[in-house]
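Hi L.,

You mentioned the student needs an example of a multi-chain input paired with its predicted structure. This one should do, with 251 residues in total across all chains.
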Amino acid sequence: MVRTPCCDKTGLKKGAWTPEEDRKLMDYITRYGSWNWRQLPKFAGLQRCGKSCRLRWLNYLRPNIKRGNYTKDEEEIIISLHETLGNRWSAIAAKLPGRTDNEIKNHWHTYLKKRSGKISPQSSSDNDLAQTYQGQDKDTEETVLINTQSAANSAQIIESSSSTLSPQAPSFDDLSATDNTAPANMDLISDNDFAFMETYELPGGNFWTEPFMSDDYFMPSDLMAPLVDPCFDGEIASPFSFISMEDYNLY
DNA sequence: AAAGCGATCAACCGCAAGCCG
DNA sequence: CCGGCTTGCGGTTGATCGCTT
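Structure written out for the whole complex:
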């Protein structure tokens, strides 16, 4: 089987993302969702590979991402899960709400690998760590498990919305329930980097207080959006411009 | 002051799995 | 079943930062 390149390499930008690129990607995904990562940069007006956009969104721009400031509990969980799961970073990340596999992987290699190496196999047995993890009472454990579950569900919903060819503004009701924590979790990101979000006003508030439009915010009129959406200074093209009403009825 | 060096982390790359026609 | 496409994952790279000399 001949593998098709993930993208046409010619003319595509690589390296660090600029705030402007972040803004474009954020604008596009919050408006239309990630209906197709490969096509997305084209419509979003980005000179980037779709893979690069996906990575940027999942590891950096996605709401409710925690950055830095690992708690002792989180580190213990990572070490514990790594003992049982190995380098399955995505599986480990699924148990840590707000953490991405990439960040966990980095954190492991920079801090935890050394630390876990110092712990003798006996003292760091699953039982010991499980006891630490479970905390002082059972409620703590249940809370952690519930949070873990909801985070996994949240992630699943995001991914499912992006993996299907469903050009709707995604439904992120479950995430919006914890939206108020988002700014606190983003405290390591410079204000300057996300200054554009201050101006990203949605009908019900700004990006962080209303990061995701409710389903009904996606009005049929959006389907009639022009090829280049005037709301975004001509930078963002609506994918729906190419969808016939026949296809739309399928959604 | 600046060169050297290690640590950190964002981003890239290639492969595999899953889905679909 | 096969081939093509997209997405997800994990390893690796490279830019940047801060500390040391």
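You could point out the following to them. The first strand of chain A starts at residue 201 and ends at 202. The longest helix of chain A spans residues 138-163.

Best wishes,
N.
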